[in-house]
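Fill in residues.
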C-alpha cells in the first residue's frame, strides 16, 4: 500500500519525495523479468544478449556477438543471418499459432478487421510478391506514407522480407517534408493512400505525394491504397492501385535470409540543424532488443495478453512497439487508425473494453489530455482487463503518473516510464514490472544489458543527487548504425561531446536521486518536444524565414501544461512590410499555415510575436533562454552577455498591447 498525498499537498511534490509503488506479490510471481537479470547481464553482457538473440530464428548462427572495433559503428551478431519478417510472422504460424490474432484493426469510422498470423503471412507474401513485380531488389529504399492501416504493417514487413529498406514518413508531414526524405534516401517507390480519416472526415494524402514526387527524380512508382474513396489525380504510367497489384498476387513467398547488419529501415528525426537526420537501423540487433523489451518491460504473455501501443507507425515507437517488437513475440495487438476523441472522448477506453486490452502504452501528453477531459469518461468503461501501463516520449510529471495508475489502472497496475530515442531503437531506461519499486516521474534504471550514466561537462559521472548529461557508455544491440549518407554528422552529433570517453551523447539532461535512480529532465539542445514529437527550433526558424515577409526568426519551446512544450516564435519583419499589417491576425495565421505547409501541422507555432530585434550574444548567438522567459511570462533573466542589453526592453515594450 502507498500513502496518498495529504490535503492541500500537490501531487507534483512527489518529485521531491522518494515514494515508491512496490509490485504486488501476485504480479511479481508471474513476471517475465527478474531481479537476477541485472546481475546476470552485468556478469557477462555479451552472453546475456546472445541469450536474448537466441530466442529468434536464425538461418545462420553468428560467430561473434559484438564487434566494436570500428566504433562508433557497432556490428552485432556478426556473421549471423536471419529474415526479420519470417521472425515476426512465419515463425508463429510454423509453431502452430496461425489462428492466433495478430492484429485487431479498428478504423476511425468504426469499421474493423481481425487478422490472424496465418492471414498476416498471406498478406505479407502477396505484398512482397507485388514489390518484386515492380522490380525492387534488396537494398533499394521504399518510402511509406500511410495512415494507420493494416497495409502499412504489410508494407513494412514485405520490405523486411525482401531486404528493402523502408523509410516511413508520418502521414501528418507535408509534401515538402516527404520530398526531402525521399530525396535523401533516393527511394524508388512510395506507398500511400488516397486519403486518411482525421477527426471523422476524410483528408487527402495522395495529393501531397503527387506534389512531392513531381520534384523527386528517384521515384519510379506510387502504390496507392484505397481508404476513403476520395477523388485523386492519376498518372497512368506511375500510379498503381494496391487492389489492382497486390490482391491478385500469390499468397506464398519463399524468404531469403539477410546479414544481421542488413539495413532494415531509415527513420528521419529532428536534430539541432534544419535538416532532419536519417537514422539507420539494421536487422539482428534491432529485432533482438525490441523483442526483449516487449517481453520484459511490458511483461507480454503472447497467449493471453492483448497489447495496444497508441503511437503512429510514422514514429519510432510505432516501428519498435507496434510492428517489430510485439510481432516478433507473437503478440495479439490492437491497431487504431484515428484520433482519441473521435467520435467521443472515451474512444480509447471503449476500445480497451471491446478487445480486453491488457497492456496499454501511450505518451504523457495524451495522459494529461485524458486528465483534462475528466475522470467520468474512463469511469464509463470496464478497464479491469488492464494489467500494465506504459509511458514514452517525454518526462511524465508525477501528477500524471499517479492519475494514470489510479484512474486508468485502478490503483493496481504497474506503470513503466520508458526512456529511449529514435536513435536507441528500443527502450533503454525503464522500471521492470514485477521487479522495480516504481517512483512516479522517474525512468529509474538502465535495463539489464544496458549501461547509462549521468555525467558532468567533462564526462565524469556525477554522484547521487547530482545532475548533468545522460550518456550511454556501452554499445547496445538496437543502437543506430549511423545517419544515412552522413558519417561526419553522425560522429559530431553523438560521439564528439564526450569523444575522449567514447560515450554516446543522448542530448537529454538527467539527474540521480539519493538512491541512484535516473530522472530525465528534457533536452539540453535546441530540440523541442511537442506532444512527444521531436521538432528542432532551427527547422521551424528556417520555415518562417522562407516566408517573404520574414527577415529573421527565433523559436523556443515554452512549457505547456498539455503538450509538454509549445512552439513560440519571435519574428523580425523585412523592411517594407508594414508592421501593423503583419501583426494582424490574418498575417499571423498566414505565417502559421506557412510552417504547416513547410513541415507539417505538428510544427505550427502556438504563438508568433512580431519583434523589432532579437537578443543576441556578442558572437551573434540568439539567447533563447531570454526569449523563453518572455514566452513563459517570467521576469527576464540575466542580460549581461547580450551584445545590446536594451534589446529585451525593446522586445517587452513592443509586445505590450500587441496581445
Ligand atoms: C524524450 C521517442 C523523458 C527525450 C521514443 C528523448 C523522454 C526524446 C522519455 C526522444 C521518457 C522519450 N522520459 N524523456 N520516458 N522518452 N523522451 O526520438 O528527450 O521521438 O531524447 O523517441 O524524447 O524522442 P524520439
Amino acid at each position: 500500500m502507498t500513502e496518498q498525498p495529504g490535503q492541500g499537498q500537490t501531487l507534483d511534490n512527489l518529485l521531491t519525495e522518494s515514494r515508491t509503488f512496490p509490485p504486488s506479490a501476485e504480479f511479481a510471481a508471474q513476471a517475465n523479468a527478474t531481479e537476477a537479470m541485472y546481475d546476470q547481464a552485468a556478469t557477462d553482457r555479451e552472453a546475456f544478449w546472445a541469450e536474448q538473440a537466441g530466442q529468434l530464428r536464425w538461418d545462420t548462427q553468428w560467430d561473434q556477438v559484438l564487434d566494436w572495433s570500428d566504433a562508433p559503428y557497432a556490428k552485432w551478431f556478426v556473421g549471423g543471418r536471419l529474415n526479420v519478417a519470417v521472425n515476426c510472422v512465419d515463425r508463429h504460424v510454423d509453431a502452430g499459432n496461425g489462428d492466433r490474432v495478430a492484429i485487431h484493426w479498428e478504423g476511425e469510422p468504426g469499421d474493423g478487421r481481425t487478422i490472424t498470423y496465418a492471414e498476416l503471412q498471406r498478406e505479407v507474401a502477396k505484398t512482397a510478391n507485388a514489390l518484386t513485380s515492380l522490380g525492387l531488389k534488396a537494398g533499394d529504399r521504399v518510402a511509406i506514407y500511410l495512415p494507420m492501416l493494416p497495409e502499412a504493417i504489410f508494407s513494412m514487413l514485405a520490405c523486411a522480407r525482401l531486404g528493402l529498406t523502408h523509410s516511413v514518413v508520418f502521414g501528418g508531414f507535408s509534401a515538402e517534408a516527404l520530398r526531402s526524405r525521399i530525396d535523401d534516401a533516393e527511394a524508388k517507390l512510395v506507398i500511400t493512400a488516397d486519403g486518411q480519416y482525421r477527426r471523422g472526415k476524410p483528408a487527402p494524402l495522395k495529393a501531397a505525394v503527387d506534389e512531392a514526387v513531381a520534384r523527386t527524380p528517384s521515384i519510379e512508382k506510387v502504390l496507392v491504397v484505397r481508404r476513403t474513396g476520395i477523388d485523386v489525380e492519376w498518372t497512368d504510367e506511375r500510379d498503381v492501385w494496391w487492389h489492382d497489384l497486390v490482391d491478385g498476387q500469390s499468397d506464398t513467398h519463399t524468404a531469403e535470409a539477410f546479414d544481421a547488419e542488413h539495413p532494415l529501415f531509415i527513420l528521419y528525426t529532428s536534430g539541432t540543424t534544419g535538416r532532419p537526420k536519417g537514422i539507420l537501423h539494421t536487422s539482428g540487433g534491432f529485432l533482438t532488443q525490441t523483442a526483449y523489451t516487449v517481453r520484459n518491460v511490458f511483461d507480454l504473455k503472447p497467449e493471453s495478453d492483448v497489447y495496444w501501443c497508441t503511437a503512429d507507425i510514422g514514429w519510432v515507437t510505432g516501428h519498435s512497439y507496434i510492428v517489430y517488437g510485439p510481432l516478433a513475440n507473437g503478440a495479439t495487438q490492437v491497431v487504431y487508425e484515428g484520433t482519441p476523441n473521435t467520435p467521443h472522448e472515451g474512444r480509447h477506453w471503449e476500445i480497451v473494453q471491446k478487445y480486453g486490452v491488457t497492456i496499454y502504452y501511450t505518451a504523457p501528453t495524451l495522459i494529461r489530455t485524458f486528465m483534462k477531459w475528466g475522470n467520468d469518461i474512463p469511469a464509463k468503461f470496464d478497464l479491469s482487463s488492464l494489467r500494465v501501463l506504459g509511458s514514452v516520449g517525454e518526462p511524465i510529471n508525477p501528477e500524471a503518473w499517479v492519475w494514470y495508475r489510479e484512474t486508468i489502472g485502478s490503483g493496481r497496475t504497474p506503470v513503466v516510464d520508458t526512456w529511449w530515442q529514435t536513435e536507441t531503437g528500443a527502450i533503454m531506461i525503464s522500471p521492470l514490472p514485477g521487479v522495480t519499486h516504481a517512483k512516479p516521474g522517474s525512468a529509474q534504471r538502465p535495463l539489464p544489458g544496458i549501461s547509462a550514466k549521468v555525467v558532468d561537462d567533462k564526462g565524469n559521472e556525477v554522484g547521487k543527487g547530482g545532475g548533468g548529461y545522460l550518456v550511454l557508455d556501452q554499445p547496445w544491440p538496437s543502437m543506430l548504425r549511423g545517419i544515412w549518407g552522413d558519417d561526419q554528422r553522425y560522429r559530431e552529433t553523438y560521439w564528439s561531446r564526450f569523444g575522449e570517453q567514447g560515450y554516446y551523447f543522448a542530448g537529454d539532461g538527467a539527474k540521480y536521486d539519493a538512491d541512484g535512480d535516473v530522472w530525465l529532465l528534457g533536452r539540453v539542445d535546441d530540440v523541442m518536444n511537442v506532444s512527444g514529437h521531436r521538432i528542432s527550433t532551427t527547422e521551424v526558424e528556417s520555415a518562417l524565414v522562407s516566408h517573404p515577409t520574414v527577415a529573421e526568426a527565433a523559436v523556443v519551446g515554452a512549457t505547456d501544461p498539455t503538450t509538454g512544450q509549445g512552439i513560440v516564435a519571435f519574428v523580425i519583419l523585412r523592411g517594407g512590410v508594414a508592421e501593423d499589417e503583419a501583426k494582424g491576425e490574418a498575417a499571423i495565421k498566414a505565417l502559421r499555415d506557412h510552417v504547416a505547409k513547410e513541415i507539417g501541422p505538428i510544427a505550427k507555432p502556438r504563438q508568433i510575436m512580431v519583434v523589432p530585434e532579437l537578443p543576441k550574444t556578442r558572437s551573434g548567438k540568439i539567447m533563447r533562454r531570454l526569449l523563453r522567459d518572455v514566452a513563459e511570462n517570467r521576469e527576464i533573466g540575466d542580460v549581461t552577455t547580450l551584445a545590446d542589453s536594451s534589446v529585451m526592453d525593446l522586445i517587452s515594450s513592443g509586445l505590450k498591447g500587441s496581445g
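DSSP finds 21 helices and 29 strands in the chain.
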